[in-house]
Write a structure and sequence with these properties.
Elements lengths: L6 H9 L4 H20 L6 H13 L8 H8 L4 H14 L11 H8 L4 H14 L2 H15 L4 H17 L4 H10 L6 H17 L1 H7 L3 H13 L7 E2 L2 E2 L1 H15 L3 H17 L5 H16 L6 H15 L4 H5 L2 H6 L6 H14 L5 H12 L4 H18 L3 H15 L7 H11 L4 H14 L4 H20 L12 H13 L5 H13 L8 H10 L6 H14 L6 H5 L4 E10 L7 E4 L6 E2 L11 E4 L8 E9 L2 E9 L8
Antiparallel strand pairs: 1-2, 3-5, 3-7, 4-6, 7-8
GO biological process, one term: vesicle-mediated transport
Subcellular location: Cytoplasmic vesicle membrane; Endomembrane system; Golgi apparatus
Keywords: Cytoplasmic vesicle, Golgi apparatus, Membrane, Protein transport, Transport
Length: about 650
């Protein structure tokens, strides 16, 4: 490749390299040619060679030998060379390089150049890689350019001043007067640079912050002009007028209104206007709304604060669907709004808090929601309990935590839960086999403490009826064991049956639990028979029917009572046996099963005979499928048998 090839040709050759080694070879040859030409006198190709070297640098190859060439090109009177020199300085130099000090004088001269484009190059370079020493030397020049009449220069000077303030914070006072005057500009670029500069000044110096609080009315007027302005193709982004400037102004207003009620009050109406007039269906609108919400949450204001909080919650509710993590960062502020006195704000905060629940924060956020449930208004309890149940079902870290959470809700607001809560909790307890002892002990304590919460009493009665034997043993590893006598359990159930607070459905649960205990206790069967017989003449038809049927079990069908009350039975409704790839000589015949109910706890069995005719005595594989119902749930299990002993044939 010729040393004098153009940049486009060099790029084409490098991209055409088939291997990494071939690419390195091309670049090494070109870098050697560039070094050789740098050593020669000015031949008009310096800027082209530096441009090629910058491309090599972008590919990740060393290009430090071009640093001094950047210094020479910056000092060149020709604009094309100066432009490439400044670009090279921004890419190859930083404040740690000694060569960066050599361009300070050139930058100072170019800041006073008659061409705005040369001034722009110097401003960009200083704002990009200016060291603290360069910033101190050139700060007066930047302050002078902030007062220039050219908007193109002023917007770049403002951003350059931001870099200087970050490098040398004590120079911020130098730019304070000029930055305040920039707010009267109409050019959006100048306004954007001014707002960024003022934001930086306010964050660095509390005294400057107090000075710029007087500029809040001007910022409010600028923001209102953006919100209410008509369509402007120059600044419009997805229907939003200059959302970048709006976001910057809102961020500055948040800083100025923090811990200052006067400044915050001046912003209230504006924030309400922005929140109601901004379309959040596009990304630009969502960005403005998000910044509005952050401002509302951070300012200090009494008048109109509740309205603003409500609007903020509504806006965040829209944003959380598209950017969950962004809203998640402000979870603490949202949870604090649950303590607000206004019911509408509480409702919005509740909806947003429920939307923020995830597998990561389920424990911490659920504590806040349960605390809110204990003091929330009656009209919000049903919605709160429903949301907590849904979140617990989706993200429960363990079955014990899930059960504890539901029991806590039932204890706190059991009268406001949905009708399906009781069967859902019963199903959860049934599947948590290792927690039966823990659950029955906990529910027994809850039953003794309070029988006014009907849903909790119903679950407790069911659990005592099913797992009363675990309660009577007094052994539980999960919780502190309680020594419970048979009479204590029957006293508790009888209290439920006789209480005026118990609904007919609750009495039905208690009566059934009492009947089931007749197979789990040994010394109080006569008392159970007496309790059941009393309700044989109850005015409630459903309860009377149950009592009559249970009395019949005690008398005429006493031999069936253990099977009917010993926990959940399994009803067999289909058995299917098949052979895997059977030969034609094999014949299979199934006899009818001996029954269709299998009692729980191994108290009975169902047998079914399968006749298999295998005259050729070939090896077979048998697949057996059993379908049954347990507590109205359809279950199915399949097993394959492929190890029949040889004598079986």
């Amino acid at each position: 490749m010729s040393p004098s090839v153009r940049l486009q040709e060099m790029i084409r050759v490098i991209r055409g390299a088939r291997t990494q080694g071939e690419e390195r070879g091309v670049i090494q040859r070109e870098c050697a040619a560039i070094r050789a030409q740098f050593r020669q006198a000015d031949n008009g190709t310096r800027s082209h060679n530096l441009a090629k070297l910058l491309y090599v640098h972008m590919l990740g190859y060393p290009a430090h030998f071009g640093q001094m060439e950047c210094v020479r090109l910056i000092a060149s009177p020709r604009y094309n060379e100066k432009r490439v020199g400044y670009l090279g300085a921004m890419m190859l130099l930083d404040e740690k390089q000694d060569a960066s000090l050599l361009i300070t004088n050139s930058i100072k001269n170019d800041l006073s150049h008659s061409s705005q484009y040369v001034q722009s190059l110097a401003l960009c370079t200083l704002g990009c890689m200016g060291s603290a020493e360069m910033c101190r030397d050139l700060a007066p020049e930047i302050d002078r350019l902030l007062r220039a009449s050219n908007s193109y220069i002023k917007k770049k000077a403002a951003l350059c001043a931001v870099h200087i303030v970050r490098k040398v914070p004590e120079l911020g006072e130098l730019f304070t007067p000029a930055s305040r005057s920039l707010l009267s500009e109409k050019n959006h670029g100048v306004l954007h640079g001014a707002v960024v500069l003022i934001t930086e000044l306010c964050e660095r110096n509390p005294e400057t912050l107090e000075q710029f609080r007087k500029a809040v009315p001007e910022l409010v007027q600028i923001m209102k002009g953006l919100v209410m302005s008509g369509y402007s193709p120059e600044h419009n982004v997805a229907g939003i007028s200059d959302p970048f400037l709006q976001v910057r102004i809102l961020r500055l207003l948040r800083i100025l209104g923090r811990n200052n009620e006067t400044a915050s009050d001046a912003v209230n109406d504006l924030l309400a206007q922005v929140a109601t007039n901004t379309d959040s269906s596009k990304t630009a609108g969502s960005a403005v709304l998000y910044e509005t919400v952050l401002t509302v949450m951070d300012i200090k204001s009494e008048s109109g604060l509740r309205v603003m909080e409500y609007i903020s919650m509504t806006s965040l509710q829209k944003i959380v669907q598209t950017d969950h993590n962004a809203v998640q960062r402000h979870r603490g502020t949202i949870v604090d709004c649950l303590k607000d006195q206004d019911a509408s704000v509480k409702r919005r905060a509740l909806e947003l808090s429920l939307a923020l629940v995830s597998a990561v924060n389920i424990r911490s956020l659920m504590k806040e929601l349960l605390l809110f449930l204990s003091s929330c208004p009656p009209e919000l309890r049903a919605h709160t309990t429903s949301g907590i149940f849904n979140a617990a079902e989706r993200y429960a870290p363990s079955q014990r935590w899930h059960i504890d959470t539901i029991l806590h809700v039932l204890t706190t607001a059991g009268g406001d839960v949905r009708d399906e809560t009781v069967p859902n909790l019963i199903q959860l307890i049934t599947t948590a086999t290792e927690l039966h002892c823990y659950t029955v002990h906990k529910l027994y304590r809850a039953l003794i403490a309070d029988i006014s919460v009907q849903s909790l009493v119903q679950v407790a009665c069911w659990c005592i009826g099913e797992y009363g034997d675990l309660l009577l043993r007094g052994e539980c590893e999960e919780t502190e064991p309680v020594q419970v006598a048979e009479d204590d359990v029957l006293d508790a159930l009888e209290t439920v049956l006789q209480s005026h607070m118990s609904s007919p459905a609750t009495r039905g649960f208690a009566l059934t639990a009492t009947m089931k205990l007749s197979t789990r206790i040994t010394h109080n069967v006569d008392r159970i028979r007496s309790i059941v017989s009393i309700y044989g003449s109850c005015i409630d038809v459903e309860l009377q029917q149950r009592a009559v049927e249970y009395n019949a079990l005690f008398k005429k069908y006493d031999h069936m009572r253990p099977g009917k009350t010993q926990g959940p039975n399994y009803r067999l409704f289909m058995t299917f046996v098949s052979l895997s790839h059977p030969p034609q000589s094999v014949q299979l015949q199934m006899k009818a099963p001996s029954g269709d109910v299998i009692p729980a706890h191994g108290l009975g069995q169902v047998t079914q005979t399968v006749l298999l005719n295998n005259p050729n005595k070939v090896s077979l594989k048998m697949r057996v499928r059993v379908c049954y119902t347990s507590q109205d749930f359809v279950c199915q299990d399949t097993v394959q048998i492929d190890s029949f002993p040889s004598p079986a044939w």
